[in-house]
Amino acid sequence: MTPQRPPGADAEAHEVDPVTGSLMPEMSGPLTAGSGLYAAVDLGTNSCRMLIAQPRGSQFLVVDSFSKTVQLGAGLEASGKLSRASMGRTIQALRICQKKIEKHGVRRMRLVATEACRRAKNSKDFIKQVKRETGLTVEIIAAEEEARLAVISCAPLVRRESEQLLIVDIGGGSTELVWIDLSDVAPEDRPKSIMRLSSGFDRQGLHDARVVDWISVPLGVATLKDQFIDVEDDAARFALMSWFFEESLANFSPASAAQPRKGFQIIGTSGTVTTVAASFLGLRRYDRAKVDGLVMSSDQIDLVIRDYLALGPDGRRTDPRIGRDRHTLIMSGAAILQALMRIWPTDQLSVADRGLREGLLYAQMSADGVLEDGPFE
Hints:
This protein has helices spanning 76-79, 84-104, 115-119, 123-134, 143-154, 190-195, 221-227, 234-247, 271-281, 288-291, 298-318, 330-343, 356-368, and strands at 14-16, 23-24, 38-43, 47-56, 59-69, 108-113, 138-140, 164-170, 175-181, 210-217, 264-269, 295-297, 348-352. By secondary structure, it is of the alpha/beta class. A 7-stranded mixed sheet has the order 2-1-5-4-3-6-7. A 6-stranded mixed sheet has the order 10-9-8-11-13-12, sandwiched between helices. α2 packs across α4 (123-134), α7 (221-227) crosses α12 and α9 crosses α11. The radius of gyration is 20 Å and the shape is globular. The protein starts with 13 loop residues before the first strand and ends in a 9-residue tail after the last helix. Mean pLDDT is 84; it is low at 1-33.
């Protein structure tokens, strides 16, 4: 889960520029209930997260948000099913989402579930229970759509000089990687060309971004941790997790391809990536404005990971930079991150505090044609 905003931040409204990625000044004036408001809910293996926003020109204004660790996928690796306890926690969180949606009079929304529900044998029964107890309709989306939504949310962070782009979304139950060739796209059009991939990865028009390959690895911070939960030594467990994840990428075609360093960019989006960035900056209170768009070197990432290992499980549990919700998952996420930085020809990672929720909002607003001169043109 992305580190929590400071207390009270959920009530703040900030406008996000989809091209620059910067936060716009707070807008003045009251919002009319339901007036063009959109909701997006991401129900993942570990967390339930929601944004409510209103389109403003080519941007959108976030008017409310919610994030809660629910551990929906707890025990899934062993049983193949969502447990009664995890479903109960998740439904409680969704009730809060429902109340916020009702409070704001939101009529346009999309609620999606990802890897845990894709894998669980009882996911259909769970979705029916959610509908029955909250009135909310949750859809289980395919891995490709999850990857596509993560990609378009990261478009504002694409550099003009980037010719080869790897976007990585480290989730709780899976990790999506999308390799994109931008060499035929004019530098000034590269961020918007990523946005246009909302219509599908098979878009191959002239001077468009071209998806070379994509993969959804069924290993995220929760599922990878569960694979090696019986390894007692902290450092050995970390090394095994990183090796195991690297092995899972053997069939990802660009992994073995020789790529030049120049013009290559990796963008990472996940709670792991933002937590590592916040730790590097020494933030005791999470600040999205400082984290989103930060560029970290491999050496800086390794320094943070070595610090995590030196702390050990007890030290990580009490470290304010990591947070109580993430301390048990940070090393599996760090193992994935270290493997990624080891494989590809770059020593830099662009940090994205954005993901599925933002992608859902952009896609809904684009489909409704409410983004003036919008990024999906």
